[in-house]
């Protein structure tokens, strides 16, 4: 028990696993995806593995692996971690424990934004309650373009994406309009381009033939 607690306290995120455990691999992948680099201890590769496994069971971890600790505290096994992830608590827990930092999180969200932007030539990030977002969408449709619309207020990671859009140079941060993978801007920039006659040439490759 003492060794388990000692190892669990040495890093902000610690996972006890077994090399042959598929669920352990999934939990590790989830942590990496969230931007954390947990310390991983594979019990089947450790001379004291059996004793540590018994200690983990005594802590209430059943099955014994994966056993996850954040900030030195036991948070549970796979089902507990997944529940925390689904309700949004896991990421905040990792941030509070300094297992991931805001800067890393912003880089990850910027990557997510760019992945979404690459899906189609014209992409708009919006909010369902935003009148200006609606107006920009209508303008594009009137110009014969059907943009991909991502409503960030309906995305579990919307707040982080909003901060990422601001870091990328979008004032607002919605609507944030991307054409051909490049940030055009928000409402003011789009309307200025439209009034100057510059918007239609940008949209020409993506306009419907009908």
From TrEMBL:
Pfam families the UniProt entry points to: Glutaredoxin
Xref: CDD domains: GRX_GRXh_1_2_like
Cellular-component GO terms for this entry: cytoplasm
Keywords, ordered alphabetically: Cytoplasm, Redox-active center
Domain called Glutaredoxin: residue spans: 14-75, 122-184
Localisation: Cytoplasm
The organism's place on the tree of life at top rank: Eukaryota
Main localization category: cytoplasm
Name used for this protein in its record: Glutaredoxin
Organism whose genome encodes this protein: Dillenia turbinata
UniProt lineage: Eukaryota, Viridiplantae, Streptophyta, Embryophyta, Tracheophyta
